Amino acid sequence: MPSWIKRPSRTVEVGANDGRINDPIYSFVMNHKETTCILLIEPQTELIPFLQENYKEHRSVTIFNGAIGPTSTIALFRVKPALWPCYNPPYMQDAPFYRVPSGFASGSKKHVLDHARGNLAVDLPLEQCIEELHVPCRRLIDFRGEVPFLDEIDLLQIDTEGLDDATVFSCNIDVLRPKLINYESAHLGRERQENVEKYLLGEGYRLLRWSGTDVIAIAETAFDQKLFQSSPQPDQGRRSRWLSAWWRAGRRRARGPARPLG
To answer: Rounded to 5 degrees, what angle do the CA atoms 13, 19, 21 make?
Structure first.
């Protein structure tokens, strides 16, 4: 997450993986166990024990083994779990054997093949290393009654490897109104990026591309709830004041790495 976001207390994370390694919210949530609530959504059953272990000390966590989507099930492609130990990761090389190959499971078979190609130390055709699985889906609003903070979400964190737009569309944004929505846009392609941006702008959010891969959608209530860093550091203070002015004016150009999309 951007350093100028004050870490939120009520979070939904879609695509949680093991919840800890390379995770944007884990450290804050676990350092504030008494004041944070979190819903963790992860479709791969093999990762649920790791997720449960990493959050076992947290008093207010809900874990759903499934996905967010408009239908009852969704198809995902991935490297077969039996082959995870055979994967030679080109990045995060110090991570446990499961973390990288499980991290690029996707609704796009090509996405998985592209990541797996040349990195599996097995004498098998690449197609035989990939499997399709069907996981249960729910809309985010379906968790009402199970997750008490669902109508007061500070942060909706989405990383679903190319399904981020479909995930956003299935999160009932018009009803639940998360204050901040961070999603990965890098795997969407131009047309799908434009569609999700148009949708979020139509729902009253302002958009910032704050990294090469991620966009954050900001609701006006994020300023009302003081979710931005009020740090004594000059750079942080300037960023917070600029964000507020940018949102309300709607015309200011971004300075630094963040780029306004609307």
So the answer is: 125
Q: Which residues contact 66 (CB under 8 A, 6 or more apart)?
A: 41, 43, 135, 136, 137, 138
Q: Which of 65, 58, 22 has its CA nearest to residue 37? A: 58
| Number of domains, the chain | 2
**CA distances (Å), origin 53, targets 38, 186, 262:** 15, 30, 40
Residue 231: predicted pLDDT:
40
What is the DSSP-derived secondary structure letter of residue 251? Answer: -
Whether the full predicted model's pTM is greater than 0.90, yes or no, is: no
> What CATH code is carried by the domain that includes residue 256?
3.40.50.150
The tens digit of pLDDT for each residue in 168-183 reads 999 999 999 999 999 9
| Domain end position, chosen among 89, 107, 136 | 136
181 touches 158 (CB < 8 A): yes
* Tens digit of each residue's pLDDT (9 = 90 or more) over 117-153: 999 999 999 999 999 999 999 999 999 999 999 999 9
Residue 244 CB-half CA count within 13 A: 14
Query: Do residues 203 and 173 lie in contact, with contact meaning Cβ atoms separated by under 8 Å?
Result: yes
Task: Assign 261 to helix, strand or coil.
Answer: coil
Would residue 5 count as lying in a domain? no
pLDDT recorded at residue 9: 84
Residue 217, strand partner residues: 181, 207
pLDDT-derived band at 227, boundaries 50, 70, 90: low
Q: Is residue 187 a part of any domain in this protein?
A: yes
